[in-house]
Amino acid sequence: MYVLLDWVANHTAWDNKWRYSNPKFYELDMSGNFRSPCPEWEDLIKLNYDSKEMRLEMIESMKYWVIETDIDGFRCDMAHFVPTDFWNQVRQTLDKVKPLFMLAESENRDLLNEAFNMLYCWDFYHLTNDIARGQKEVCDLDEILPHIIYEYPTTSYQLMFTSNHDENSWEGSAIERLGYALETMTVMIFTIKGMPLIYCGQEAGHARRLSFFDKDVIDWKGDKMFSLYRKLIALKKENKALWNGDFGGDLFRINSNKDEQIFAFTREKEDNKIFVILNLSYELCNIVLNGNAYVDKYKNFFTNEIVIFKELQSLKLEPWEYKVFVKNT
């Protein structure tokens, strides 16, 4: 297990000792008063990145956790609120102590140039919610694939998720937002390019919103999502086609006569191949597949049934049904 420490570099609480010992570490208004990062965050005060002393002290604080606790990296809160050149400075300094994995809570790709290994993919997250609500279709997913898949730096990663702490508390739990689509979208984030996130409680089928500011206990019960996550984690670990970045296989879109409802694709790496078919709709779909990139002999990942796909293969998918086929030669 690798451990990333959540790091909030843009602001501190009002009772941080820097407020008293180093007030110049903070942005001040014309009257010399501390400023909040934005009106909604009045419980916080914004740090001043024009202060070289503050920057160095921040880096020393981060270095402390690497040296003293041997953590493996940082998840940096609202990273785009902080100047990119500071993060570059962080990476140059900390990598001399230990190679780290850096996750930015941001979609700004300039952060990948030097400082970070992975960004959040909110475009994909929001689209999956819209598809689950019937407000968007697979053709809308095809439109963003170039941006989030084909044009994305292969040496970096995107964090794919159906939920996280913000979305769960403010927009609703995954089951609340996705409903019948939850399992299908979970399969998609584990098989599409990117690194999947499991938010606390999802593996227990936790169906409600967690309190954001107060202790809120999760009911760690047995749930079908636990079994699904367990299988998908094993698949992603064992099948090279699903590995991340350059280590995994490229995504090749498979079209059909039902491209408004069906999202199908293959990924292949060395002796591993995977073929995924997802019905992202409330419709029963009788589909005919186009092309021949999928043509092969596979094992159904969930049933272990051997399946041979031929050109113009036809099959039926129930609403929100998913099928995953694997080949290991």
N-C termini distance: 30 Å
Number of strands: 16
Shape type: elongated
Helix content: 25-40%
- Name of the CATH class of the largest domain: Alpha Beta
The CATH architecture name of the largest domain reads: Alpha-Beta Barrel
- Tell me the β content: 15-25%
Number of helices: 9
Low-confidence stretches: none
Compute the average pLDDT. 96
The biggest sheet, with number of strands, parallel, antiparallel or mixed sense and barrel status, is: 6 strands, parallel
Task: Reconstruct the topology from this structure.
Elements: E1 4-7, E2 11-13, H1 18-21, E3 44-46, H2 52-69, E4 73-76, H3 84-94, E5 101-104, E6 118-120, H4 122-132, H5 138-150, E7 157-160, H6 165-171, H7 174-178, H8 182-191, E8 195-196, H9 224-238, E9 251-254, E10 262-269, E11 272-279, E12 285-288, E13 296-300, E14 306-309, E15 314-317, E16 322-328
Parallel strand pairs: 1-4, 4-5, 5-6, 6-7, 7-8
Antiparallel strand pairs: 2-3, 9-10, 10-11, 11-16, 12-15, 13-14, 13-16
